[in-house]
Design brief:
Elements (H helix, E strand, L loop, with lengths): L2 H24 L14 H4 L11 H4 L22 E8 L11 E6 L2 E4 L1 E2 L4 E7 L2 E8 L6 E7 L4 E3 L2 E2 L4 E8 L6 H6 L7 E6 L21 E4 L4 H4 L8 E4 L5 E7 L2 E8 L6 E4 L2 H5 L3 E9 L2 E2 L4 E5 L5 E5 L5 E7 L2 E8 L6 E7 L4 E8 L4 E8 L8 E7 L15 E3 L4 E6 L3 E8 L4 E7 L8 E4 L3 E7 L6 E6 L5 E7 L5 E7 L1 E9 L4 E9 L4 E4 L2
Parallel strand pairs: 1-8, 1-9, 10-16, 17-24, 25-31, 32-38
Antiparallel strand pairs: 1-5, 2-3, 2-6, 4-5, 6-7, 10-13, 11-14, 12-13, 14-15, 17-18, 17-21, 19-20, 19-22, 22-23, 25-28, 26-27, 26-29, 29-30, 32-35, 33-34, 33-36, 36-37
Length: 531
Amino acid sequence: MRVLPSLIGIEAVVLVLLLGVWWSRQAEVALPHVGDRAVGVADAGPGAPEAAGVDRAQGASASSERREVVVSDGGASAGQQVILQGRLLTSTAFPEMDSIRMSMRRQGTWRSAEISAAGGYAVCDLSPGTWRVTCEVPGFRRLDFEHTLTGAAIQRLDIELQAAVVLPVSIRTTDGKRLQAELTKTGLWQGLGIVITAAALVGDFEPTENSSLSIAGVGRHRKSGDLNQLAEPDGDDGVLELDQPPPVYAAVLLRHTVLAQQRIDPGQTEVHFVIDLAEVERRYAKVRLRLVGPNGPIAKAMIRLSTAQGGGHGGRTDENGVAVIDKVLPGLASFDVMSPDSERYSTHLTVEPGADLDLGDIVLTAPGKLQGRVVGADGVGVAASVQWTAVDLWRPPHPMMDRRSTSADGDGDFALTDGMRRYSMRALAQDGRVGFAVVDASAAPTERFAITVLPAHKVRLSCPPMSLRVAVVTDRDGNPLVVSRLEQRWNEGSISLPDGDYQLTIYDGRGARLGSEALRVAGADLAKELQ
């Protein structure tokens, strides 16, 4: 039986060598001229490697979504390994390879392609079965289609790229100034973008926690990511790439809110928006609060309201503990309060456009130290990442505080300093085991506690295109354990849970409860469609 691992190792080396030979040849092969057809077996000639065409209608589907979310494959790639390789075929000049995004996904598994300068590509570590292929190349229509892999070790698929309708776009104020440059003067460096849809939008989207809302409709807005360029009065506002011929609709968004919208007609050569700067500023909100601690009002505390990417506004409390923060972006904000002698207060707020939001008194507790240990089912300490959320500060449809963590060492020991509250704790071991604990730290001193990590299974989540759904998993006592937000573009995700009984509750992006059901995890992965 010792021969088998050796044979597998030799096979893997041979595959890598073959792929290396193929890769080196890509730069030497002239790019063929392509007409209106995808290149298939008949195009390649006798004895050529297998090639397949792409369904052009599927590739330009308005309902397609590009969701490049890296999740564990849950064993989907176990067994025979497959390499898919081929060429991205164009009848025009090939763009910079660093600007190309190509990936394949199947049942929560995501694999990205390596692209050569001449348009060759290869995707490794695949398994037989049907995969979803997405490909975005500047100047060309976005492709999103299914392709089935056989059991062959190396397979070929050549993909024809079709030119998109490309229109320069400008966004100006009513007095002719560049809107983006004017917004940077107010401190807004993120949040402004354009979405392209087949039908006109009615109202705003649901609040997002991201700086801007990215939606794969029937095209995309390409602009410079250089922050310095954003402040240029005569800077470039980018181009719109259409995946289908006009008529279509383009809308300028401030995060999730629609600032302006217009129809793009056949034969149109550019898109020009005029937006009143005062109207944009009316979308900003104002947040008021007073901080109170055990000894009365808290002065000079730092308040921060930010997006998932970190942009936002903040302020400090005065001698009476009062803070008034202007020009707060509408949407879902991370809300942090930092004071030297108090807890690190962290939660979220949903801020409505133009709101004057009075939070009243916010009471901070004294800082406290929590000590714990992550162990396996056998009681042995386990190295892990630990995240924690104050249960009394969390409200659906907000995420849990999953962007901060501490580390448990090799013996499983960890310590963290936070407030005197009840916390929902989650431990993620390096081998994929997961554990939860609800810890009451509202009274000091807090006893040392343990989090037991167990083998976990994937609960794979999806929701309809252009939707926002929030999945909340609670324990039998209603304590939140995991929250997964599937936003409009990223509408696939997964949750890792050990075997057990849970409650799954679904909300929309505004907090309306859409449904609830018992969730049992018992020895296998699950799939849930969040309607």
